[in-house]
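Memo to structure team: turn this sequence into structure tokens by end of day. - J.P.
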Amino acid sequence: MKQLWTIQEVAKAAGTTSRTLRHYDAIGLLPPASLGENGYRLYDAAALIRLQRILALRNLGLGLPDIARVLDDGLSAEDALAALEQQLLLETTRLERQIASIRRTRIALQKGRSPMTENMFDGFQHEQYKEEVEERWGADAYARSDAWWKSKSDAEKLAWQQKLSALNNDWQDAVARGVDVTGEEAQALAARHVDWLRDLPQAMVPDDFGGYILGLGEMYVNDPRFATNYSGEVGATFVRDALKVYVETNL
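Reply from structure team:
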């Protein structure tokens, strides 16, 4: 007889809540293996593996609809976990490099030294997107954007990163508080976002600036790498909708 776990046991082990597991069941993402005589949901090992994948994919920034599509990819559990493991290893490596870079900067500040070194931005470089940028906007666009970035001083690069981080954090805060996308606060954020985009290399910003912004908004929603900047698909949808209102009103 296979082992089964109650919803409370699974929630406690996974660090989540019974309410979340019931929601996953309601949307068809994580059905229980069976129901007990008392009507309680019971989960088997296969369900636990599926939950492990769900939580890992959520941590990578995927929204629930995207997770559902990934889970239904037809792979065996072993192959799916192997692919997920590789994805997490890549993300872990990137984060470890960023942590080490930030630690070096902090130590330099503590010792009264300038933190502006060639290693300061390890893990933050954009070269990993070279092929994608060239495919989307052309080789000239990448070359110009690369030259634009490398022309900046370390202080300018740090200021640019801080500006982007502050913008993303403010978007996430607005989403968490349920701000109206048409309201003054969301539209002020949209204006900041547009100003930030205007600072990008001209080769990356086409003549149809409004259409460009609308296209980026869709990309934020559809690409998990961008959606994670806004706490997932729901946040990215909020940003997209706020930018759309701004474009229709101001551009």
